[in-house]
Amino acid sequence: MRRGIRRLSVLAAMGLVLSLTACQGGGSVDPQDLYDEAKAVNTTFKEAVGAVQLQVFDGEWTVEQYGDIPRGCGSEGYEFRLGRATPDGWRLAAEPLDAAKSLGAWMDGEGWEDVSVKTFDGEIEDVTLVAARTKAHVSEIVVDFTPGELFDNVTVRATSTCEPGSWADLLQELVPGAPSDPPPGISRPSAERPDATPLFGFTADGTPRG
Amino acid sequence: MPASHRASGVLVTAHLPEVIDAATVEALAQRLIAVGNTAIAAMDEARDRWWYLGEVFHVSGAESAPYMLDHAVVDSRTWALALSAAATSLMQTASWELPALKTRRDELARRIAEVNTRHRGAGEDDAPDVAEAAEDLESDIRRFRRDVEDTEEQLAQALDRVTGGTDVRGADGRDVSVSNTYWGAAVGSSAGMWGTGPTIVGLSDRLERALGDAAAARIRWLATAPAADIRSWLADHPDFASAVGFVDPTVAARLFEGLAADSTAGAPDGYGLPTWASGPLAHLLAFAPAAIGNLNGVRIADRQPFTLATLRQLLADPSLGDEQYEQLLALSALVDPALTGTGGQQAVLLSVFVDSDGSPRASIAYGDVDTADQITAITHGIATDLGSLGDWSDSASALQNDLRTQLAAQGASAQTAIIVYLEWDSGNAGNVWNVERPAAGAERLAQLLGGFRSSSPEVQLNVGAHSLGTTMTAELVAANPGLVDNVWLFGSAGVDEPAAAQLREQIAAGTLTVHATHASDDWVAPIGRWPVSEHPVDPRTIPGVVEFPADGGYVSGYGSGEYGERVEGHNSQRSTEWYYLIDGWESDLWGNLVPIMDDESIGYLDPRSQSYKEFVVDLKAAAEAAR
Fold first, then answer.
1. Are B518 and B491 in contact (CB under 8 A)?
2. Residue A60 is assigned to a structural domain of this protein
3. Is the Cβ pair B608, A1 closer than 8 Å?
4. Residues 6 or more apart whose Cβ sits within 8 Å of residue B450
5. What is the pLDDT of residue B591?
6. Distance, in angstroms, between A4 CA and closest chain B CA?
7. How far is Cα B151 from Cα B96, in angstroms, rounded to an integer?
8. Which end of chain A is more exposed for a tag (fewer CB within 10 A), N or C?
9. Does A54 map to a domain?
10. Where are the beta strands (DSSP E) in chain A?
11. How close B188 comes to chain A (CA, Å)?
12. B113-122: which pairs have CB atoms within 8 A and are 24 or more residues apart?
């Protein structure tokens, strides 16, 4: 997807792209510092995405991906991916294109970057909105409006920015004892309001970490 | 008579040759016999075990494999016979000739002393007699020396087929190296611009059909054997966890039922997974969980505790390398409810093992495979392994969610499941023109899908494949008519001629539908179909194949119709690889060509792409037909 076309010489382009795709490695980091930094990133990321969700539906969204399990990215970095969907039976209050345009205008005003609403000659009812907000650690958000016969559906899928640090170390900080001896009975919600305080890690007895 | 002898007072000074101690030779003979017997016994045992392997594995194209040690057995017997012949010669020499020579030597030594004594005390009258006795004695000594040398020569000739040294040679006399004795197969790439190195293919990847009754016996043995014996056996058979996937699904189902009947179920664990309190399944869960976890044909709900236990067992292995550990840990973070917790859309682990080259392999599912009306496996091309699990899992999760939601929104009751098949070794650029790895991957996928078919005979089975995965899928369909109902091919690296003919026949017979797409910006896929390739056929050219778009546009039936983005390279998911970011060229003020760069490249299975959305629409229609 072209977003802000840049024209560069071949060698400069390759060098820049290669340097941009590699997150800077973190070296040895204190586990508590790693957790604190990651929690701050995750909270900011989820607050930003949650604010977008609230513009669409102020209620409990179905959780596809909770968004707290770190993944590897770059040379030695971590990122989060989040997925939410409106519940079965829910209906859009406006036409999909109008809802998407309204959301896009709001996001533009809130400082979201590269907001684009994809339509096609006006004959398509489904609309996809794409944007980013790197200051809030959102490298990409995709909002898909899909009307249906019995109910409508909006999905929100977002990826955080790639942050320096070991995803494996962070995972073991979030789930102590992982992977061989994790705490018993941890759980994450299968549905959650966008403004709920997100879970981020567990203690050794399986209760959410404060 | 030499004057010097008389002057010294010693008439006979000839040196008697030494005779080898018969006891030493006899002991050597006994050792040779023992070595020969041991060699025969060991080779016979190895051959018996190899024959047993033939009862366990049925390998298409390698039917003679169970007999490949027969020649080695003959060689070992020939070798042992040579040792035995040498030992016989040694024993004969030690029993008869050496004692006789020893007696003669003792007699000659006595006569030397006697003649010399007579010489020292002899007067003029006795001198001629003593001199004559000395001459006779020296003649006997010379004859004795010749006899000793002849005996040694005869013994050496009898032993000429046995020599020492550390070189190992085969029956043909040529040196045998370690690479020749590796039990897998070393195969050189026959084609490929970069494909000149050898490819090691583990035994399990060469299996086409089931383990059968012998494998069932092995699993039964594991179900009751002492823990130490199990650990030892599994350590000696690292391919076992991988090979379990080749057990015939119907045999597997009966085996599990039998084991379950002899076991006592425990209470479900904290995540609702079944447990086993006692009996063979409890034993297997504790000590050999892969024996059930990777057993295609057993319901996924029953396998899941075993697959998860296998994954935890692998992660606890201190010999894992960093890359292996991180790949398995990432898998664990996706599928182990002890880490992911309950809630959310949970991925389910279908199988996991470490391949013969040390690469972790696995398959996961979204949706309930056991109750689904439609199961669709998606799979990858070259240079993809468990390190790409996250991207492929995202595609599968999105597919499953979009399918479920859109089917429900239109009132359809069909249930779906999406599989990510990451069990096959697709190799890298050096293998892209060969069909060997796709064929091996197809054999394993046939087992996985065959297991679903065995558990749910009416289920609709589909495959969505990318790049070299399309080659693999064509091999799968060609070799297993009727197994797969629908196929979607994204950016195909080509299919081979026999598979193309099979696809055409099955399409014409109405037992298969095939859809194929190729993005205009995908300049990589055609390389896989170059004339030098073993799979040069573009599937879009096969009669009956339905081509679907990927260059961006309206997708009818996605929800109520939606725009799908243009696929911008050969990538399967979103990519930031620089060679996919170049979005055309233009001239600068000085006439130099400069690239137009994108921030990212949309891939074939990226949820934003037209090809993905077309895939969803087609899967919806197929799911409704399956219901």
1. yes
2. yes
3. yes
4. B249, B296, B297, B480, B483
5. 75
6. 8
7. 11
8. C
9. yes
10. 6-7, 61-65, 71-73, 77-79, 81-85, 113-118, 127-133, 138-146, 153-160, 163-164, 191-192
11. 33
12. B115/B11, B115/B12, B116/B9, B116/B10, B116/B11, B116/B12, B119/B6, B119/B9, B119/B10, B119/B11, B119/B12, B120/B9
Bridge partners (DSSP) of residue B587 are B593
Tell me if B599 and A152 make a contact (CB, 8 A cut-off).
no
Cβ within 8 Å of residue A191, ≥6 positions away: A60, A61, A62, A63, A87
More confident residue, A126 or B4: A126
Nearest to A1 by CA among B595, B607, B614, B574: B574
Establish if A199 belongs to a structural domain. Answer: no
Q: In what order do the strands lie in the sheet with A113-118?
A: A113-118, A127-133, A138-146, A153-160, A81-85, A61-65, A191-192
Contact between A153 and B411 under an 8 Å Cβ cutoff? The reply is no
Structure tokens at B201: 């293919």
Distance CA B339, CA B329 (A): 10
Whole-number pLDDT of residue B9: 58
Q: Where are the alpha helices (DSSP H) in B202-289?
A: 212-224, 227-236, 240-243, 249-261, 280-287
Structural contact between residues B478 and B452, judged by C-beta atoms closer than 8 angstroms: no
Q: Which of B397, B554, B599 sits opposite A3 (nearest CB)?
A: B599
Strand-pair category, B360-366 with B275-278:
unpaired
d(CA B272, CA B361): 26
Q: CB A1 to CB B568 under 8 A?
A: yes
Q: What is the CATH number of the domain that holds A91?
A: 3.30.2030
Smallest Cα distance from A88 to chain B, Å:
7
DSSP type of residue A209: P
- Span B465-482, pLDDT tens digits: 999 999 999 999 999 999
- Look at B332 and A178 and tell me if their CB atoms are within 8 Å: yes
The band of B97, judged by pLDDT with boundaries at 50, 70 and 90, is confident
Alpha carbon distances (Å) from B113 to B134, B136, B254, B368: 11, 14, 90, 103
Q: B378: closest CA among B390, B362, B395?
A: B395
Q: Which two tokens stand for residue B282?
A: 């409890």
* Chain centroid offset of residue B144 CA: 64
Task: Give, rounded to a whole angstrom, the gap between the first and last alpha carbons of chain B.
Answer: 120
CA A203, CA A170: separation in Å to the nearest integer?
A: 14
Query: Helix, strand or coil for residue A204?
Result: coil
Q: Would the pLDDT of A82 be above 60?
A: yes
pLDDT at B173: 52
Residue A24, in any domain of the structure:
no
The number of distinct structural domains making up chain A is 1
Q: Which of A96, A99, A151 is nearest to B561 (CA)?
A: A96
B408: chain A residues, CB-CB within 8 Å: 88, 148, 150-151
Q: What is the pLDDT of residue B160?
A: 63
Residue B517, both tokens? 């797409």
List, in sequence order, every residue forming a beta bridge with B493; answer none if it has no partner: none
Are B242 and B207 spatial neighbours (Cβ–Cβ below 8 Å)? no
In this complex, the residue of A17, A64, A127 whose CB is nearest that of residue B578 is: A17
Q: How many whole angstroms separate alpha carbon B106 and alpha carbon B115?
A: 14
> Which two structure tokens, joined as six digits, stand for B187?
């195969």
B330·A72 Cβ contact <8 A: yes
* pTM of the shown model: 0.68
pLDDT value at residue B185: 30
Give the bridge partners for B577, in sequence order: none
User: How far is CA B564 from each of CA A97, A146, B552, B603, B613, rounded to the nearest angstrom?
Assistant: 15, 13, 5, 11, 7
Residue of A nearest to B600 (CA): A1
Strand partners, A153: A146
Range of the domain at A42: 30-192
**How far is it, in rounded angstroms, from Cα A127 to Cα A147?**
9
Interface pTM, i.e. ipTM: 0.72
- When CB atoms are compared, the residue of A6, A71, A180 closest to B597 is A6
